[in-house]
Amino acid sequence: MIDYKKLAGEKISSLIPYQPGKPIKELERELGVKEAIKLASNENPLGVSKKVIQAVTEALHEMNRYPLGDAFYLRQELSRFLDVPPHQIIFGTGSNEIIELAIRTFVKEGEHVLSYAPSFSVYGIIAQAAGSFCKWVPTKDRFKVDFNKLKEAVENSTRIVFLANPNNPTGVYFSEEELVDFLNYIPKETIVILDEAYVEYVDAPDFPDSLKLLKKYPNLIIMRTFSKAYGLAGFRIGYAIGHPDAIDMLNRVRQPFNVNMVAQIAAIAALEDREFVRNSIKINREGKAYLYKQFKELGLDYIETQANFILVNVGDGKDVFDRLLKEGVIVRFLGPTLKEYIRVSIGTPQENEVFITKLKKILNKG
Ligand SMILES: Cc1ncc(COP(=O)(O)O)c(C=O)c1O
Fold first, then answer.
1. Nearest atom (ligand 1) to Cα of 237
2. Which cofactors (predicted)?
């Protein structure tokens, strides 16, 4: 018998795969229900912009061709939108791919990555799959990033520090002052990847203006995505902005046709449809206010969020998660380290109401 575990080696066989949110169709099939709602993966509840659907539909007949390897038109469009030179941008199949590219490009043998916990588990999974590891530094009270501890944790062999801002799964953010202080402290050859997947939803006035900081800190790379406010999670497209030399190195590792053409076309149309993005942000802001109010009335402690989801303390997270599932509502339970919590993505007003109704029923507060 061939022993694939042995062939893959300990680093791979001990990996715990990323657990995605349960798909709606799967839950509906299991429960035999029709109207299940998914508030589990921080997706855009407004669906896909009509302009995106139109642009993609029109382009489908050209899909016998390879995509533009350099995402030429999208690059131009995004460069104008962000006011960043085109050669400082790289695209990936979701920002997930950028995480992988960065680790494969820059983390050499004996080096590792650093982040704070709880945060996006993918940093650790990809690091381990690449033969390295992620050192996790605990957060402070109410999941605030502990920059003193992060500073202490930086070693010569720390090649990349991943800082999600706002963070997933907590929704907590750190300020420009905190970031600048950290950037001034760390060695020039330690790369800081700011993961701004939820940046469009932020309304905190002291949130970092990261694009401005790029000029001063060549070791800074900013990562963003079309999966959230732009509503393109299924297309898989994200990007990073950084020093031209950093982007050049990442480009050497990137597969030549990594981002498919449908995704490129979808992203151009999504960038142009400002109305859709504005609406997504508005719905999120209103949903957040509604859920905060409901949680307060229910006496539930929640973590203030700058993103499109809320971490809420329900006592027994796994139990509430399981019971919500049976009611046709998919949220997220985040495992033993956050056992009192569930994470709920902010949905449409109607989805939010259904969630609250079911939650009240489960907590006997109806
Ligand atoms: C903090 C964070 N970074 C990155 C991603 C990855 O996004 P994508 O690969 O869809 O661009 C997510 C997705 O949920 C996230 O929460």
1. 11
2. pyridoxal 5'-phosphate
